[in-house]
Design a protein that fits this description.
Largest sheet: 5 strands, parallel
Order of helices and strands: EHHEHEHEEH
Bound molecules: 1,3,4-trihydroxy-5-OXO-cyclohexanecarboxylic acid
Number of strands: 5
Helix content: 25-40%
Amino acid sequence: MATVDNKHILVIHGPNLNFLGKREPETYGRTTLADIDSGLEKLGFEMGLAVETFQSNHEGAIVDKLQEAVGRMDGIIINPAAYTHTSVAIRDALLLLDLPVIEVHLSNVKKREPFRHQSLVSDVVTGTIMGLGAMGYELALRSISAQLK
Ligand code: DQA
């Protein structure tokens, strides 16, 4: 049951993930971002975690959100989407945070084009879940809950 003492979890979705459900469904599935977010909020409530969700197509906005999380949040779930493969800025912002951070990818990026094989964030996060579709977010939240106990 949620209380004022809840731990706070921030979920960040990067560019084009606002089109989930319509975007390349054979790769990313038919679950919408709204479905993912409401599922996480519900699961968080059941586990006593307050879940805040955020999506942006802009690298700097994601950096701003990570900076705001310093000292406020207890855990982060992030799918940096295309910025996974390019963003030193998001990597550096993640290094500001001393808390559990799970990187999630809906698709198995290792099975896709070579430019998706490199993640600039994998070696600065607690763990990475990929290739399990929308369920990856739920598993990430369960993992953070366990780590915070
Ligand atoms: C993604 C994989 C990225 O390579 C891609 O740019 C995305 C989504 C995933 O969730 O599988 O936008 O992060």
